[in-house]
Structure formats: C-alpha cells, structure tokens
Amino acid sequence: MILLPIQFKLIIYHLICGWTFALFYHFEHSIISVSHKKYLKWLIEFIFITILFFSYYFGLYLLNNGLTFTYGIICFLVGFFIYYYFYFNTLNFLVVGVTRTIVKFIKLILLVFMRISSIMNIHHKKWRKQLGKHTKQKKKNKKSDN
User: Fold this and answer.
1) What kind and span of H or E run contains 35?
2) 40 pLDDT exceeds 90?
3) Which residues, including other chains, have CB under 8 Å from residue 108's CB and lie 6 or more apart?
4) CA 5 vs CA 9, 71, 78, 139: distances in Å
5) How many CB atoms lie within 10 A of CB 61?
6) Measuring CA to CA, which residue among 20, 74, 73 is closest to residue 48?
7) CB atoms < 10 A from the CB of 135, how many?
8) pLDDT in tens, 96-129
9) What's the whole-number mean pLDDT along residues 57-76?
10) Backbone torsion region of residue 67, taken as left when φ is above 0, otherwise alpha when ψ lies between -120 and 50, otherwise beta
11) Concatenated DSSP letters for 42-105?
C-alpha cells in the first residue's frame, strides 16, 4: 500500500509529465517537419523519446522507487490529451517560433562550415593544380632525357 499523500503526488506528477511529454512531442514534430533526411528524423525522435523516458522514470524513482500503476498511466494520457485539446493552439506560435529560431541558427552554422570547407576546397584545388603542373613537367623532363 502506498500512502495517500504519495498517491496524490504521483497523480500530479503523471499529469505534469503527460503534459510536458505532449509539449516536447509537439516541439519535436515541428523540428522533424523541417528536416528532409530520414536518418536525422529518426535520430531526433530517438533522442527526444529517450530523454523524456529516462527523466520520467527518474522522477518516479525519486517519488516511489520507480513503480508505475494503472492510474498513473491513465493520468499520463489525460495530461497528454489536456495539452492537445486545451493548450495546443495557445502554444503553437511559441513552438513554431522556437523551431524557426533553431533552424535559422543551424543553417547559419552550416553556412559557416560550408564557407570554410569551400575555402579549403579552393585551396586544395590550387594545390592540386600546382602539383599537377610539377608532375607534368617532371614527366616531360624524363621523356626529353631519354
């Protein structure tokens, strides 16, 4: 038997976890919708679910040694549906704005790396041209010597 105050804490904890899981799922889904690569979608989804799963069970471990009951799962689902029925439209602009900011930041970082790699590539091409000129001259010199 679990004490009544602990059961109330568990019910509130499951409701809050269901709500936050739905919020992060909404955020994750908006990030995935921007991505075009399948492996990146799977990676993002795996990371989000793993982090949320372990944080959920860590909180349960702190409350009652990690035991889950049927009413806890039902409260988790109720928290999930509370977010999607009451808060989804309210927080949608915030989630989309944060997603756009993150995507812009990632694109800027990729742009910087593309510029660096293109500079390195141009330098590499010049180096290969110079190397090619020297090898052609060496081949001509060997042919003229024979």
Assistant:
1) none
2) no
3) none
4) 6, 15, 20, 88
5) 11
6) 20
7) 10
8) 888 888 888 877 777 776 666 665 555 555 555 5
9) 87
10) beta
11) HHHHHHHHHHHHHHHHHHHHHHHTT---HHHHHHHHHHHHHIIIIIHHHHHHHHHHHHHHHHHH
Least confident of 6-10, 69-73, 78-82, 131-135: 131-135
Q: Which amino acid is at 128?
A: R
Residue 51 CA from chain centroid, whole number: 11
Length of the chain: 146
Q: The pTM is what?
A: 0.66
- Residue 119 one-letter amino acid: I
Long-range contacts at 134-143 (CB < 8 A, ≥ 24 apart): none
* C-alpha–C-alpha distance, residues 66 and 61, integer Å: 4
Q: Of all helices (H) and strands (E), which one includes residue 36?
A: none
Give the tokens for residue 31. 């990030």
